[in-house]
Task: inverse folding
């Protein structure tokens, strides 16, 4: 099939132009079912976003839709509401008819769980009529078969899980009416090409299709030719208002200074609010966590190695505000495209991509490809795309991504839904590369070149990436503490911490769903930001001496924020005081008086 050419912005030439004159000002203008409008109101959705304004009427009219909109612009609700409306309309005519009517495909388990919750939220007041299931969970084949045997109306799955069940009698797509691929530009890069081809052959004719994407790429065009019939192409921006967005800053520093600046940023509270810290791989995430623990800065880790239930729980707790800092290992995004192109028989280093800038950024070495092979079973995992981090104040690119597109997706985690945010990126100058081998990573070799691509790409979007200069004279006062902490975080300590956390999370994950649904009060004991304790404890590092505090930082922090506050109570209880009193007198709490040892009581007279 011949692909249509994309323009210079990766957008199909015949992209649909929104009709802003007929835009709906409220959800009631869509003439949705009253139960859906009630759920929309409960979710505090007051005004449709641009993508919802344009997509929902077309979807209700039965049109196939190919929509590009920024992260956080409301793409999910743009197809969830029309699907629920169509299902309720059909149920009103044939209430006894049961079949799988909608199939939603997503690239990751986390995103599947997220979309499932959106369906549940919007169908809250019609739950008896419409039911959705998420079949990406790690359950036995018998449990999965029983979930599908009841013929749910909506099935959410990854392409891999959906194709596995195509031969099952309980997973019939004969009466499917709606088909959705969310994050369409990402699905093929995860190696689901064969799965999608199998699914396309199983779909009945006349299925209404939604392809939702953050970018228009050659992969999206491939999916369009495979699933759509003359779709309405929507090219829409996000819901951000003028004057809001991401403030982007870059700090050029040495390799070990990444750790130094991170310590200063979090210990002196230079960032207010929740922060996502992106690192290049799993080892790196535990190294940074152990490093921050030395200073009493708590964080939780999110990576492809953890069980899916634990990853979902980490996200839920982070979004609730239980944790302030999350360290995300984005290794799958860096290497995922390489593996998928190799699996399809194409040379990843010689292939010409849609965006030549981004392709030139990625120069994988043999170790990176070998590492990707070892982690290929986690291809359904991704951090910078799809996952919904809520209320993020700052995105810290501790390790710069391998391409400008990856950078765009990362910083899209903040400044969502009209809010403001900040992105801070550490860049290693070429002359500083491999100067501090203990903290060096191979991807830093191309940081400056990737930065040039990022600046160019952001300039086309009307955004500026500004340099940021720390006052290194003041920061250098903390350098010896940073060195103490880094010496403690050895490779062996990282390996032990990684193994220990994986064992803990495996135990938690097995009991997570059943037990904590019955005992919600015990969730507070299941924290993911606890100390790993794989390194030697250096209590003095948790305290910042007042003489080290910069004048501005001292003013910005309240008096009670200075120093380390231990978990121990400052006041002793009555029984403890009595025991200590008796011990000082040379008496035991449970015996009578005895002769005083002057060397113990420091009482020369031998009397109390």
Result:
């Amino acid at each position: 099939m011949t692909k249509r050419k994309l323009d210079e912005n990766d957008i199909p030439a015949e992209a649909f132009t929104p009709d802003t004159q007929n835009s709906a000002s409220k959800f009631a203008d869509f003439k949705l079912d009253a139960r859906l409008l009630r759920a929309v109101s409960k979710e505090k959705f007051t005004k449709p976003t641009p993508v919802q304004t344009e997509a929902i009427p077309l979807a209700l009219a039965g049109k196939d839709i190919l929509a590009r909109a920024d992260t956080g612009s409301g793409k999910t609700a743009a197809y969830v509401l029309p699907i629920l409306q169509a299902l309720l309309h059909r149920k009103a005519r044939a209430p006894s008819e049961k079949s799988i009517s909608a199939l939603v495909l997503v690239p990751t388990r986390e995103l599947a769980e997220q979309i499932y919750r959106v369906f549940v939220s919007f169908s809250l007041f019609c739950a008896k009529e419409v039911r959705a299931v998420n079949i990406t969970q790690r359950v036995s084949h018998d449990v999965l078969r029983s979930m599908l045997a009841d013929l749910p109306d909506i099935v959410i799955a990854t392409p891999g899980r959906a194709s596995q069940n195509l031969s099952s009698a309980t997973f019939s797509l004969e009466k499917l009416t709606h088909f959705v691929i969310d994050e369409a530009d990402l699905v093929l890069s995860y190696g689901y090409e064969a799965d999608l081809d199998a699914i396309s052959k199983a779909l009945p004719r006349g299925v209404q299709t939604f392809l939702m994407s953050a970018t228009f790429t050659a992969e999206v065009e491939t999916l369009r030719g495979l699933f759509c019939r003359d779709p309405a192409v929507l090219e829409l921006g996000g819901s951000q208002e003028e004057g809001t967005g991401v403030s982007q800053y870059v700090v050029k520093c040495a390799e070990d200074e990444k750790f130094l600046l991170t310590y200063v940023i979090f210990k002196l509270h230079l960032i207010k609010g929740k922060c996502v810290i992106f690192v290049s791989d799993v080892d790196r995430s535990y190294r940074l966590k152990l490093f921050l623990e030395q200073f009493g800065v708590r964080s939780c880790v999110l990576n492809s190695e953890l069980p899916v239930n634990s990853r979902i729980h980490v996200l839920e707790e982070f979004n609730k505000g239980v944790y302030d800092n999350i360290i995300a290992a984005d290794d799958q995004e860096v290497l995922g495209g390489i593996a998928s192109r190799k699996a399809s028989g194409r040379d990843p280093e010689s292939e010409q991509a849609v965006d030549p800038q981004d392709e030139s950024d990625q120069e994988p070495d043999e170790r990176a490809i070998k590492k990707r092979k070892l982690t290929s079973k986690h291809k359904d995992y991704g951090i910078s795309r799809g996952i919904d981090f809520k209320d993020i104040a700052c995105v810290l690119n501790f390790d710069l991504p391998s391409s400008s597109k990856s950078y765009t997706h990362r910083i899209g985690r903040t400044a969502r839904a009209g809010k403001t945010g900040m992105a801070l990126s550490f860049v290693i100058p070429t002359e500083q590369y491999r100067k501090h081998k203990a903290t060096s990573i191979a991807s830093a070799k191309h940081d400056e070149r990737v930065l040039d691509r990022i600046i160019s790409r952001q300039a086309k979007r009307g955004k500026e990436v500004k340099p940021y200069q720390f006052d290194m004279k003041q920061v250098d006062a903390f350098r010896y503490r940073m060195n103490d902490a880094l010496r403690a975080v050895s490779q062996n300590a990282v390996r032990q911490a990684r193994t220990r956390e994986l064992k803990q999370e495996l135990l938690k994950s097995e009991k997570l769903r059943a037990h904590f649904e019955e005992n919600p009060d015990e969730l507070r004991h299941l924290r993911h930001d606890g100390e790993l304790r794989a390194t030697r404890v250096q209590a003095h590092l948790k305290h910042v001496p007042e003489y080290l505090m910069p004048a501005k930082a001292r003013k910005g922090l309240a008096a009670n924020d200075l120093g380390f506050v231990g978990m121990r109570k400052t006041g002793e209880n009555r029984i403890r005081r009595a025991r200590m009193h008796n011990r000082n007198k040379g008496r035991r709490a449970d015996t009578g008086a005895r002769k005083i040892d002057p060397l113990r009581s420091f009482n020369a007279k031998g009397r109390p």
User: Anything to note?
Assistant: The first helix runs from residue 34 to 42. Residues 246-561 form a domain with the Rossmann fold fold (CATH 3.40.50.300). The chain has three domains: 20-235, 246-561, 568-608. DSSP finds 23 helices and 14 strands in the chain.
